[in-house]
Amino acid sequence: MNRFSLTLSRGIARVTDAPLGPYQSAVIRIGFSVTWLLFLLREFPHRQELYGPDSPWAWDLAQQLVGTNGAFTALLWSDGQGWFEVLYVLAMVWSLLLLLGWRTRTMSVLFMVGVLSLQNRSVFMGDGGDNVLHLMAIYLVFTRCGQVWSLDARRARRAAEAHARGEEPRDRTGPVLWGVLGFLLLVATLAGRMDGELFVPVLLWTVWAAQGLWWLTGRRAGNGQPRILLDVIANIVHNGALLVIMAEACLIYATAGWYKVQGSRWQDGTAVYYPLQLEYFSPWPALGDLLSASGTLVMLVTYGTVAVQVAFPFTLFNRRVKNVLLAAMIAEHAAIAVVLGLPFFSLAMIAADAVFLPTSFLRRLGRAATGLRGLRWGPGHVRRSRDTTASGTGSGTDSGLRPDRAPAQDLNAGRNPDPNPDPDPDPDPNPNPSPDPHPRAGAGIGHPGHPGPGPAPTAEPASGPPPDRGPVLPAPRGAPGDRTQGKP
User: Fold this and answer.
1) Which of 240, 233, 228, 180 is nearest to 208 (CA)?
2) CB neighbours (10 Å) of residue 482?
3) pTM summary value
C-alpha cells in the first residue's frame, strides 16, 4: 500500500508540477501553423472560388448547412467582399504569429478562429489533412506550446535577466491586446453572431476570462497560493491536451490500418497501384509510372503501409521500435506529398506525428537549426515579479523531460521552475518558485546566469588561510571555475 501510494503521489506530481513535452508541443505549433499558412498562400489566387461570397458552395447553401449543424464560422457574419478579404488576410497573419510564437495563447485562439471560419464556410474543400488541422487547431488552445522556440520564450528570458539585475519589466502590449479582444468578443456576442453550438463561444469566453484571472492573480497575489493553484490547473490542462493529441494520432492510424485490412485490394497487395494511375494524383506521371512498373515494389509498399499503421499504436511502449515505425510513417507521408501531390495532407500528418519524436532528437534539431550548439536549452530558475501581462505565453523552458526518451515515456517531467518573471493571464508559468535545484546548470537560454551575485569563493592554498580569514570555503558547484558550467 505504501509503495502504491508513493507511486501515485509521484504520478500526480509529474502531471501537476510542470507542463510536459515542451519541444513536442512547440513542434506541433510550428507544424500546423506552417501547414495552414502555406495552404492559404498557395490558394490566395483561388480564394474566391474556395471560400469567397461567390464560390460554388454559395452563401445560401453555407447558411443552411451552418443552421443545421451549428458550426462556427465568422465568414457568415457578413456577405461583403471586404469582410472576406480582411478575415482571409487575418488568418494568414495569425498563422504567422503563432509560428513565431508571439503571444502564443492568444494567437492559438485566433488561429483556431481562422481555421474554423474558413473550413466551416466550405466544408467540401479539403483532402483529409483539413480534418486533422481542424481538430489540432482546437487542441492547441489548451496547450502551453510557447515554452521553447518562440518569441515568448525569448521575452521570458530577457525579462528574467532584467529581473536578475533588479529591474521590474512591464509589458503593456498584453493588457491592451486582452482588452481589445474582449471588446470585440462582447460586440460579436451582443450582435447575435455567436448563435449555434455553444462550444466555441464558451471556449472563447473561458480563455479570455482565464487570462484576465491569471493577470489579476499575478498582480495581487504574486507567487502565493492562488497563483500556484492556477498554475497547477494550467499544467493539468496542458498535459491532458497533449495526451489527447497523442491518442488522436494513434486513433487515426489504427482506424486507417484496420479499414485497409478489410479491403480486397489491400489484401492482394495491389492497392497502391491504382492511385498512381489517376491523373488527378499524378503531378509527376513519369515517377508514378516508374513506381508502378514493379509489382514487387507495389506489393511491399501496400503491405508495409498496412503493417505500420496497424502496429504503430502498440509500439509506443518500446522506444526503439516506435522510433523506427515513426521514421517509416514520416517517410511515407513525404513520398505521398511528392508522388501523389498531396503536400498539405502530408504536412498535417507529419506535424501530428511530431508529438512522438524523442526529446533528444528535437533538442539536437533545435541547436542545429539555430546554430546555438553548446548553450543550454534548459530551464531558468527565477522568482516571478508582480508585473504581469494579459496575453500570450511566458515560458521559455524545457519541462525537464529526459532527453533520451520518446514522448510517450518522456511525459514524466521533474519539477522545474518557470523562468518567467513576467506572468501572463495565459496559464503558462510553472508554480514552483523554489531555488535552483540544479546549480550545475550554467548560463544559457532561459537561465538567468550565475546563481548568486559577485565572484564565487575559491579554495585556499594548501598552506592554509591567514588566521583572520576564517575557514577554507570550497568552490560551489556552478562557479566560474567549474568546467561543467554551461554544458547541456
Assistant:
1) 180
2) 16
3) 0.76
